[in-house]
Amino acid sequence: MIDSLALAIVAPLLGAVVVTLFPRHAQRLGVAAAVVSAAAALAITAVVWTDGVLRSELGGWGVPLAITLQADGLSAALLGMASLVALSVSVYAGGYFSSPQDGERLADDSRSRHFWPLWLLLWSALNGLFLAGDLFNLYVTLELLGLSAAALGALTGSREAVEANLRYLLVGLLGSLFYLLGVALIYTAYGVLDIGLLAEVIAPGPVAATAMALMFGGLLLKAALFPMHFWLPPAHANAPAPVSAVLSALVVKAAFYLVLRLWLDLYGPITPLGAANLLGLLGAAAVLWGSWRALRAERLKLLAAYSTVAQMGYLFIGFPLIAATAAGPARDNLIAAIVLLALTHGFAKAGFFLAAGMVQKTAGHDRIDNLGGAAQGLPAAAFTIGLAGVALIGLPPSGTFIAKWILLEQSLILGLWWWVLVMMIGTLLAVGYVFRVLSRAFNREPTPYRFVNDARAEIPALLLGALSALVLGLAAQPLWTLLGQGVIG
Amino acid sequence: MTRFVSLVLLPLGLAAIGVVLIWTFYLAATGEAGARLADLALARVPETGVSNPVTSVLLNYRAYDTLLELAVLLAALLGIWSLGPAAPGFQRGGEILQGMVDWFVPLLILAAGYMLWVGAYAPGGAFQAGALLGSAGVMLALAGYPSAGLPSERLLRLLSILGILAFCLVGLVLMVLGLGFLTYPPELAKWLILLIETGATLAIGVTLAAAYLGGRPDHTSEVDAP
Amino acid sequence: MISTQLFYGGGGILLLLLGLWSFLVHAPLLRKLIALNVMGAGVFHILVATAYRGLDTPPDPVPHALVLTGIVVAVSATALALAFGQRLDRDDDR
C-alpha cells in the first residue's frame, strides 16, 4: 500500500535531508529531488481528478486520534499549480545560483548550498499544508513554511533583504500565535482537531466566532491582506528572484488557501454576512492600494510585489459574493472562479519574477525607467513579462479573464455594483503598470539574433507565462471537474 | 500622542480583547460539546508501545506532527547557517569553571540518556533529552570551547538530520510493508519509537548547541572537542 | 475544577496580552522576541489549562504533546530571529 499523500510530503523532506548531507552536490541532488517531488504531487492531482477524494489516517489510529491527510479537488488544484511552479523555479534556480552575480563568484556557490535544503523544506511545508486535515498540524506546517521562507528571502544577503525578512519572520510568528490561540479555543470547546469532525459539531456562537477571528486574523496577516500587507513588498522585492517567485506565487497563496478551506469546510455556514463583507472590503482596499503603488513603483520587482498585494485582494472580494449566493451552480462557479484566479496568479507572478530576475542579472539593476532595450537583449524575458501581464490584467484568453467575468457577472446579478467598480478600477490600474514596464522594455534597438539565450532560465519562465495567459484560460473546464471532487457540485 | 496610544488606547483595546477571550474560554471550558479526545487517547495508551501518555501522543498518535517539528528545527539551523559564520567564541574560562564544566558535561550526557529511556513510561523523552544535550553544548561554548563540543561539519550535518531520517525511513519502510506511513506494528512499536527518539535526541541536541553558536561552522577551528 | 482551569487559562490570556502589548509598543528586536515568547507561553498556558480535568482524573495528554511541539517550534523561531539580529549587528559594525 503506497500512501501517495504521505509520499508527496516525504519526498521533498528527504530531498532536503540528502542535500543537507551532501552540500557539495546540492545543485544536482536538489534538481533530482525537485523532479521526484513534483511527480509525487502531480500524481495526487491526477488521481483525485479521476478517482475522487483521497484520505489517509496516519498511524492507523482512526480519526479523532490520528492526523489525517486529505486531498480533495481544492487541495489537488493548488498542489498541481504549486508543483509546476516549484519545478520551474527549481530548474531556473539551478542556473541562477551557479552563474556569477555582481562580480562575486565565491558567494554564489555558498548561496546555492543554502538555497537547496531550505527550498526543499519549504516545498514539503507547502505540500503538507495543502494536504493537512488537522488544525494543529496546519500550525506546524505554517511555522515550517514561515521559517524557511524568511531564511530563503534573506539569501541575497543585502541589508534591506535581511531587515525585510526579519520583519516578515516576526509578523509570521505573530500570525501563527493568533492561529494557535484559535486552535486552543476550538480544542477547549470541542475536544477535536480534525477539520472533518469539527465541521460536524461546530455551532454558531461566541466561541466559534472568537476562534474564527483569531485564526483568520493570523492567516490574513500571513496572506498580506490590506492593511496587513506592509511587510510583503520589501520582503518579496529584495529576495533572490527564484525565491521571490515562490514567496509571491505560493507562500502567500498558502495562507489564502487555508482561509478558503476553513471558510468552505467550517465557517461559511455559521458566519454572518458581515464577516464576509469585511473580508471583501479589505480585499477591495488591497486591489486599489496595491495597484496604485505598483503603478508608482520604481523597481520592477517592487512593482511585482505590490501587484501581488492587489491580486490577493481580488481573491478576498470573492468571499462576500460566495456568502451572498445561495448554494447551487452560481455559487460553485464563484468558488471555481476564485480558485482559477489564485492558480492563474500563481503561474503569472512566478513567471514575472523569474523574468525580472533575468533582467536584473543582465542589466545589473531593475529600475523600470532604465530598462530601455531590455526586450531586444532579453526577448524571452520581455515576452514572459508580456504573457504574465496578460494574466495580471485579465485579458482574454487568460484564466483571470474568465474568473473576473464570473465575479463581475455574479456581482451584477446580486446588485452589488461596488465590487464591479473596484474590479474595473483595479483592472485599469493593472493595464497601467503592465504597459509601463512593456513600453520601457521596447525601444528602437537592433533586432536580436536569438530568441532564447539561456534556455535553463528562460524556458521555465516562458512556460509559466504561457500557462497563465493561454492554457488556464482556454482549458479551464478541467478545473471545474477537479473541484467537483468534494468541493463543488 | 504616540505615548497616549501606547499607554492608554492600546491597553484599553487589549483589555477589551482580554475580556472577550476570558469569556469565550469560560464558555468553551464549561460547554460540553462532542466527545473529548482525552479518554480515547488514554484508553489506547497500552497499544502504543510506551506507557507515558504524552509520549504516546508525540511519537505514535501524532508522530507526523513531531516529524514536521524536527523539520522546523532543521529549517532554523539551516537558516542560521545561511546568515553567516559564527561569532568568535568566548574566552577560555578559569580553572574552577573548567573543572566544573568537566564534571557537568558528562553528567548532562548521562542525564540525557536517562531522560530518553525514561520517556517511555514517565515524563521525559526525546525533547527533554535533546535539551539536556544542547545545554551541555551551551556550557562548553560558554567555557570557551569555540565549537561547543560539536563534531566536524560533515558529522554535524549527519547528526542534525538524524531525527528526520529515522522518522522518514521507518515511515517509508512500514508503508512499503503495507502497514501505512508511520503505522507501527504493536509488537515492534516500543523499539521503533526508541530508535526514532534516539535519532531525534541527537538531532535536537546538536541543533540547539549549533544554533547557540549562531552561525555556520568555521572550518579553521575544528579540533578542540573536550 | 472549572475555577482552577479558569485561573490558569486567565493567567495565560493575561500573559498573551502583556506580550502582545510589548510586541506592538517596543521596537528593539530583543524586546519583540521576548514579547513573542511571553505570548507563546500564554497560549501554552491555555492549552495546559485545557488539559486539566480535576485532581482525580488523569490530564488530557493531547494538549501536553501540542505544547511540547509548540515549545520546540518557538525555540527554533527564536533562534533564527536572533541570528537575523546578529547578522544586522555585524553589518552595522562594518
Automatic annotation (TrEMBL), chain A:
Provide any one GO MF term from the record. NADH dehydrogenase (ubiquinone) activity
Please name the GO terms of the biological process aspect recorded for this protein, alphabetically: ATP synthesis coupled electron transport
Q: How does it sit in the membrane?
A: Multi-pass membrane protein
Question: Sorted alphabetically, which Pfam families does this protein's record hold?
Answer: Proton_antipo_M
Q: Tell me the InterPro entries matching this sequence.
A: CPA3_Na-H_Antiporter_D, NADH_UbQ_OxRdtase, ND/Mrp_TM
Q: Which residues cross the membrane?
A: 6-22, 29-49, 74-94, 115-132, 138-156, 168-190, 210-232, 244-264, 270-290, 302-322, 334-356, 377-396, 416-438, 459-480
Q: Which UniProt keywords apply?
A: Cell membrane, Membrane, Transmembrane, Transmembrane helix
> Which top-rank group of organisms is this from?
Bacteria
Describe the location of the NADH:quinone oxidoreductase/Mrp antiporter transmembrane domain by residue ranges. Answer: 132-429
- Cellular location(s): Cell membrane; Membrane
Q: Name one GO cellular component term.
A: plasma membrane
Family per record? Belongs to the CPA3 antiporters (TC 2.A.63) subunit D family.
Any idea what this protein is called?
Oxidoreductase
Q: Which organism is it from?
A: Thiohalocapsa marina
UniProtKB/TrEMBL annotation, chain B:
Q: Enumerate the subcellular locations listed in this protein's record, separating them with semicolons.
A: Cell membrane
Q: What is its main location?
A: membrane
Sorted keywords for this record are: Cell membrane, Membrane, Transmembrane, Transmembrane helix
- Chain segments annotated as coiled-coil in the UniProt record: none
Whether Transferase counts among this entry's keywords is no
UniProt topology in membrane: Multi-pass membrane protein
Name the GO cellular-component terms.
Answer: plasma membrane
What family is this?
Belongs to the CPA3 antiporters (TC 2.A.63) subunit B family.
What protein name is recorded for this chain?
Sodium:proton antiporter
Automatic annotation (TrEMBL), chain C:
Print the keywords alphabetically. Cell membrane, Membrane, Transmembrane, Transmembrane helix
Q: Which domain of life is it from?
A: Bacteria
Answer whether the UniProt record assigns the keyword Transmembrane helix to this protein: yes
Q: What is the recorded membrane topology of this protein?
A: Multi-pass membrane protein
Q: One Pfam family name from the record?
A: Oxidored_q2
Q: Where in the cell is it found?
A: Cell membrane
**Entry's transmembrane regions:** 6-26, 33-52, 64-84
- Gene Ontology CC terms: plasma membrane
Please verify whether the record's keywords include Ribonucleoprotein: no
Family, according to the entry, reads as follows: Belongs to the CPA3 antiporters (TC 2.A.63) subunit C family.
Record protein name field: Cation:proton antiporter subunit C
User: What organism is this sequence from?
Assistant: Thiohalocapsa marina
Q: What is the lineage of its organism?
A: Bacteria, Pseudomonadati, Pseudomonadota, Gammaproteobacteria, Chromatiales
